[in-house]
Amino acid sequence: MLLAIGLLISLFIYQRVPEDKGLTKLISNQSGETQTKIQNRQIYLSGQESLGKPFFLMLLIGMLFAGLVNGGGLGQFPRAFSLAHGAVFGGLLISIYSLVGIFGKLLLGWLNDTFGIKVAIIYSAGTLSLVFFFMLFSNQLWAAFVAAILYGSANAIGAVVGPLLVASLYTVENYGDAYGSSKVSSKQG
């Protein structure tokens, strides 16, 4: 359910500036200039200045959900592999997803650089949903191998999507402050 909500938000709600949706900025003065510090589609606010803003609260909620998915459901897969197929095959499956995870993180970064953060989030969410689907059949060895390969790719959702999302919103000067504030939410999940 969390995955579906996150996917719908990234597809239909997440926009970097109101003009992308054909809207005007809510905070503007008479001369048409905005009072918010947004230039070049990046936010010039520190993490502390962002705390009361709705977009930052949505970011914190999203990071909380990513932490829940990564620490909750995904964290149980190694034990499930070992219980279903024994220690030897379970160890092999864990090695497979650990190796694939390196390339999954690189692929996610490439998708972000090439197509943008929306495509990276859609890829992560789609891969993650396939992992959960194949884990339903993980008692069969072929499905466990497919789940391990997809899990290696989907594991980047917790480690890579958060920093990419914050980097797409904030400038280099404010990235550390904003990411530090959002990382706390991810760890709470």
From TrEMBL:
<keyword id="KW-0472">Membrane</keyword>
<dbReference type="InterPro" id="IPR020846">
    <property type="entry name" value="MFS_dom"/>
</dbReference>
<dbReference type="InterPro" id="IPR011701">
    <property type="entry name" value="MFS"/>
</dbReference>
<dbReference type="GO" id="GO:0005886">
    <property type="term" value="C:plasma membrane"/>
</dbReference>
<dbReference type="GO" id="GO:0022857">
    <property type="term" value="F:transmembrane transporter activity"/>
</dbReference>
<feature type="transmembrane region" description="Helical">
    <location>
        <begin position="87"/>
        <end position="111"/>
    </location>
</feature>
<keyword id="KW-1133">Transmembrane helix</keyword>
<feature type="domain" description="Major facilitator superfamily (MFS) profile">
    <location>
        <begin position="50"/>
        <end position="189"/>
    </location>
</feature>
<keyword id="KW-0813">Transport</keyword>
<feature type="transmembrane region" description="Helical">
    <location>
        <begin position="144"/>
        <end position="170"/>
    </location>
</feature>
<dbReference type="Pfam" id="PF07690">
    <property type="entry name" value="MFS_1"/>
</dbReference>
<feature type="transmembrane region" description="Helical">
    <location>
        <begin position="55"/>
        <end position="75"/>
    </location>
</feature>
<feature type="transmembrane region" description="Helical">
    <location>
        <begin position="117"/>
        <end position="137"/>
    </location>
</feature>
<protein>
    <submittedName>
        <fullName>MFS transporter</fullName>
    </submittedName>
</protein>
<dbReference type="InterPro" id="IPR036259">
    <property type="entry name" value="MFS_trans_sf"/>
</dbReference>
<keyword id="KW-0812">Transmembrane</keyword>
